Amino acid sequence: MKLIMAIIKPFKLDEVREALTPLGVQGLTVSEVKGFGRQKGQTEIYRGAEYVVNFLPKVKIEVAVNDELADRVVEAIQAAARTGKIGDGKIFVTELQQAFRIRTGETNAEAI
User: O-UMP-tyrosine-modified residues are where (predicted)?
Assistant: First the structure.
């Protein structure tokens, strides 16, 4: 099992969700987060004054999938979230040791 975490631009969330549904992804977790990457934030102009935004608003998506599905999920997220501009985000894939469904007691692949 894999845990896939993607940090993307907020306006791309619906496109990513729509790309994952046909793959059989039955659930995901979304968090509103702030951060910066190589661009180190950006300069904004507000009422004629320039100021620096150190942390940009992003959305973090977390989805647990079986190993067979992981590559396709990563590809779908990349395709749906890409704008071609700086700040498109990152995807991280980690090994998921165990999973439990609290309601039924199912474990691992059955819990996903």
Answer: 51
What secondary structure letter does DSSP report for 107? Answer: B
* Contact status, residue 107 vs residue 64, Cβ threshold 8 Å: no
Query: What's the CA gap between 99 and 86, in Å, rounded?
Result: 35
- The sign of the torsion formed by the CA atoms of 19, 23, 24, 28 equals negative
pLDDT tens-digit map of 58-79:
999 999 999 999 999 999 999 9
For residue range 34-59, what is the model confidence (pLDDT) as tens digits?
A: 887 776 656 555 566 655 667 788 99
Residue with tokens 């631009």: 9
Rg (CA), the chain: 17
Number of domains the chain contains: 1
Could you tell me which of 64, 63, 57 has the C-alpha nearest to residue 12? 57
- The pTM for the full model equals 0.84
Token pair recorded at residue 44: 């904004």
Domain containing residue 20: 2-110
